[in-house]
Amino acid sequence: MIETKNLTKRYGRLLAVDRLNLFVPKGSIFGFIGPNGAGKTTTIKMLAGLIEPDSGTVLIRDTDIRQKPENAKQQIGFIPDRPYLYEKLTGLEFLKFTADLYGVVESAFHKKAERILDKFSLIDWKNELIEAYSHGMKQRLIMAAAILHDPKIIIVDEPMIGLDPAGIKMVKHMFRELADSGVTFFISTHTLSIAQDLCDRIGIIQKGKLIATGTLDDLKTQAQATSGDLEAVFLKLTREESLLQGYQDVPGISP
């Protein structure tokens, strides 16, 4: 599971994430959505241990990522929106590099790598240089690398960028299959239809604050909406929050 307690990050005067409290239980898929600049990427980076919070705590399966970063990161698979790959390596060589970082047993590597490459439709390209891969193939390779060490937590930033419809369907099926086996997902996305179709619960962040969280039905209740998809609920909640903030910023006017 993933838990944050009063997680806070500033960049100068900008309060990027403001006392964020979240709990994502084992085996669930949590969607994290919000307008541009809301604090999604900063949150993702703190969860993955790429940047340190100014205050607050990130717990990865009850392990404090600041106190025991190696133990926590060993349990995480991270899929960024813009994968960085060593393009002069072959696909198989990149997986071997990743496996060595995570201490995957040598005797198990080749069988596991072949199975994962086949699952992501990359088996015929395993000995080709990554520089020859399409963007979608690179995205699938970084996903393959992220699950190679059997992580218990998978953190994903915009998982479907560059994937064709068949790739999107495959990834959605794989995520659900892994979640059913006990893997916990934290997914940040702008594609609200993906969040609606895939996620068990959804959190909406705006201006660094979590303004709503729950199932789609929970969010509809919070938005006082009896019908509509996630997009309609998202627009209603974020617009009303912006209007409320606007009133609060004007002296002498209260909502």
Q: Please, could you describe this protein's structure?
A:
- The protein is an alpha/beta fold and 255 residues long.
- The chain has 2 domains: 1-75 and 152-255, P-loop containing nucleotide triphosphate hydrolases (Rossmann fold, 3-Layer(aba) Sandwich), CATH 3.40.50; 83-150, no CATH class.
- 40% of the residues lie in helices and 24% in strands.
- It is built from 9 helices and 10 strands.
- It has helices at residues 40-47, 69-73, 91-102, 106-119, 135-147, 165-180, 192-198, 216-222, 230-248; strands at residues 2-11, 14-24, 29-33, 55-60, 63-64, 76-79, 153-157, 184-188, 201-206, 209-214.
- The strands form 2 sheets. A 6-stranded mixed β-sheet has the order 6-7-8-3-9-10, sandwiched between helices.
- Strand 9 and strand 10 form a beta hairpin.
- Helix 3 (91-102) crosses helix 4.
- The longest helix has 19 residues, at 230-248.
- The chain is globular.
SSE inventory with pairings:
Blueprint: E1 2-11, E2 14-24, E3 29-33, H1 40-47, E4 55-60, E5 63-64, H2 69-73, E6 76-79, H3 91-102, H4 106-119, H5 135-147, E7 153-157, H6 165-180, E8 184-188, H7 192-198, E9 201-206, E10 209-214, H8 216-222, H9 230-248
Parallel strand pairs: 3-8, 3-9, 6-7, 7-8
Antiparallel strand pairs: 1-2, 1-4, 4-5, 9-10
